[in-house]
Specification:
The protein is mainly α. Helices cover 38% and strands 0% of the residues.
């Protein structure tokens, strides 16, 4: 259903905003190409932080089953 207002196309970014692609290029950020890219020591500061992450992950996966 239309609201009666035409959708406006996004215009150019304001002069003080840098596109995320450019920020990634400037910072040398690369896309994740495999799960091995994420497997490194020290990602979580503690076992408790790891357990909280897993609990949240499992809850988010189950939320769509209701």
């Amino acid at each position: 259903m239309s609201s009666g207002h035409p959708e406006s196309a996004p215009g150019p970014a304001p002069a003080d905003e840098v596109p995320v692609e450019e920020l990634a290029r400037q910072q040398g950020v690369r896309p994740i190409e495999s799960v091995d890219d994420m497997a490194r020591p020290g990602v979580f500061d503690s076992d408790e932080e790891w357990e909280e992450f897993l609990a949240d992950l499992y809850a988010s996966r189950r939320s769509g089953l209701a």
